[in-house]
Design a protein that fits this description.
The chain has about 250 residues and is α/β, with parallel strands linked by helices. It has eight helices and ten strands. The chain is globular, with a radius of gyration of 18 Å. The protein binds adenosine-5'-diphosphate (ADP) and magnesium ion.
Length: about 250
């Protein structure tokens, strides 16, 4: 038996949700990047109820990705607290599915679409167990849903940007999390990919999943989201960032 757990993504922790707890609750959540000394998050208070779809909005450098990573337990907070379905972050890996920004991944990694998507199952399998037929079926199902079936054997480096975006979303979906943290899934994608991903988001809402999504699409906040969280320089603000900042969106 290992004394210290070296692998965070294991299938061993399955605490049930605390009854009537929010999907996510942060209090005074702060993070400073050690190297750059940038206070990327400063005292963020959030409550997200199960089933809500929340937009995370702000100019580049506002802290959107940092917030999603801290909630996903990929970065340590330097202050404040996080509860996910009533539990501290880190005890609920199987309930949280994180979609990184496409540009943060190394697309030269030699792996095909099917293997990339299967990697999402390791949150349940642990690194040492082999995928079962049920895992393979689920991977195929999500690849089909994202309309990548004809590309399942293709190396990920040979995909278009939109196809890459759909592949990593498929990987996120096979995790079968209850809380999905999506970092700009609609940024710089082609019209077909946008439609496919938008349909997937609608299905997630229909399934009662909780979604927190970084987005630049501020024209659709009221129609598409239950709540919007505005960030500027790591701080929560009440109103959308002003027009000046909008011009920098998406660059
Ligand atoms: P957004 O996703 O809203 O564009 P980020 O969360 O990526 O913002 O960045 C927030 C702040 O933290 C920025 O000032 C950025 O330069 C800084 N930052 C982000 N990642 C790192 C890192 N790995 N090391 C040091 N500073 C970082
Ligand atoms: Mg970002």
């Amino acid at each position: 038996m290992l004394k210290n757990r070296l692998i965070t993504y294991s299938g061993c922790h399955h605490p049930p949700p605390v009854e009537s707890a929010p999907a996510l609750e942060t209090s005074g959540l702060s993070t400073t990047y050690e190297q750059s000394r940038v206070a990327a998050l400063q005292a963020i208070d959030l409550t997200v109820e199960p089933g809500q779809r929340v937009a995370l909005v702000g100019p580049n450098g506002a802290g959107k990705s940092t917030l999603l990573k801290v909630v996903a337990d990929l970065l340590p907070p330097t202050g404040g607290s996080i509860r996910i379905f009533g539990h501290p972050a880190g005890t609920c890996h199987h309930r949280v599915s994180f979609l990184p920004q496409r540009t943060e991944l190394d697309w030269r990694f030699p792996v095909n679409v099917e293997r990339l998507v299967m990697a999402g199952r390791y949150v349940h399998l642990g690194w040492l167990r082999k995928p079962t037929d049920a895992d393979r079926r689920l991977v195929r199902e999500k690849i089909d849903l994202l309309q990548l079936d004809h590309l399942r054997d293709r190396q990920i480096g040979e995909l278009s940007g939109g196809q890459q975006q759909r592949a990593i979303l498929a990987r996120t979906l096979v995790q079968e999390g209850e809380l999905l943290l999506l970092d700009e899934p609609l940024n710089a994608v082609d019209a077909r990919t946008r439609k496919i991903i938008t349909d997937v988001l609608d299905q997630l809402r229909h399934d009662g999943k909780t979604v927190i999504m970084a987005t630049h699409d501020i024209g659709r906040l009221e129609s598409d989201f239950d709540q919007a969280v505005f960030l500027v320089d790591g701080r929560q603000v009440d109103a959308p960032p002003d027009q000046q900042e909008h011009r920098h969106f998406g660059d």
